[in-house]
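thought: fold this chain, then report.
action: predict
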Amino acid sequence: MKSIIIALIYIVMLPLLIQAQPEIKIEDNDNAETIYNKGLESFKSGNFKEAGLYFDEAIKLKPNFTKAMYNRGNVKLELKDFEGAISEFDLVLETEPENNKALFCRGMAKFFHGDSEGAYSDFTAVLARNYSHPKLHYYKGVCEFRKMNYQRALTDFDNAIQLDANFATAYNDRAACKRKLGDDAGAASDYLRAISINPSLYTAYENLGSIRRIAGDNTSALTYYNKALEINPQSYIALNNRGPVYYNSGNYDAAKSDFEHSIQLKPNYAFAFNNLGTTLIKMSRFDEAVIALNKAIELNQQYAEAFFNRGIAKEMQKDEKGSCSDWKTAYELGIKSAANLISKCK
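observation:
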């Protein structure tokens, strides 16, 4: 008889790591207002969970305590519970429709929850009531920028800066508007101001690098990109944008390395795949170039430049049919210079 070995599986029960709720101190004679004030003190100290518990207790004693509801909404904003924050501000606004702070904060919660349209509606509504706050103007400006209303966004960022002269991200984003409106000199000035206020604002260094690269100043561009990456080594955008500096100077190995590193950090970054493909063409590695450009097009099927570049790679592979097809697509997507190449196709 064959012996049968029965394997016993022992399940080791490990203790569950449950984060303990903060303890709050409520005296027998504490009323809703007293408990609410304790919550405010906790909030000011950055103890948001503790503050939330105090506000909970205050609302239990006084169910229509809108001040506590409003601040519980702010607690949820800080804890990134955006749906919960929206619900809290909704409750406040049901009782106090003219509460401008609650309307503004609900807009903020919607903004961070990904509802740009809802946020924009709340921001414009509260501004119509002559309520003003630097962040209100700033976030409305971001909404306008996303709508490609660059002149309106510029006005909003101007207003934010008028109310807070040290609002570094407002300078950074106003610069982005100026670039869209063709004012690179004004943009550079704003980026430099943003950096002077917040030296760790790596995005401002990235953007300054791009302005200098486009102007043909590769040396300054490289300095700015390096600084951005010194602050944030995980910036796939800085890597993708530094690559062309190396490319323009003929250092294709360094460019290739930057684009590959960018892709490693952001695997669905079509721009980096296109740039990698273009670099591989320069290195006469046409098969690899086509693979990279295939990926760029897979990620963005309207990517005209990737079709154009893949056409060049295919031409170098002696794939006349494939190259002509890609150039025709690039032309249809807006690259009119592809017409010169299409004219050579049979």
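thought: worth noting. The two ends are 79 Å apart (CA to CA).
final: tokens above.
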